[in-house]
Fold this protein.
Amino acid sequence: MISTKVDSFEELLDLLEKKVEQYDHPSFIESDPISVPHLFAKKQDIEIIGFWTAILS
């Protein structure tokens, strides 16, 4: 993870907007470990596998 120093509200807003552009699209999920819970249909299974995915990521 890259550390980024933010000195002003405008810089923070710009940084957050860039991150939204980077991550806020369905194709990002394909290469992310969070894609694993999306393979399940039952809510209970999604919760359990989501928990394990978070622990192991």
Remarks:
- The mean pLDDT is 86.
- The chain has one domain: 9-56.
- The helical segments are 9-23, 26-30, 43-56.
